[in-house]
Amino acid sequence: MEDIRKTTKFFYKKIYSDTLEFLMDTHNGLSAKVVEEVGLNGIWASGLSI
Asked: N or C: which end of the chain has fewer CB within 10 A?
């Protein structure tokens, strides 16, 4: 069986899930802490927002 990276497994698990997933865009450490405290499913951070 071919080895699949953990990130790839995570991606496909979330994409093909029957439930709605919520992500939040983070601009700094404070907004990342908000995501952690609220319990959202993930953080979106891109080069333009950091």
From this structure: N
CA distance 34 to 15: 24
Residue pointed to by tokens 């865009």 = 25
Residue 1 in contact with residue 28, Cβ under 8 Å? Answer: no
pTM of the full structure: 0.54
Name the CA dihedral angle for 32, 38, 43, 48, rounded to a multiple of 10 degrees: -50
Q: How many CB atoms lie within 10 A of CB 18?
A: 4
The predicted pLDDT at position 39 comes to: 87
- Torsion, CA 10, CA 15, CA 17, CA 20, rounded to 10: 110
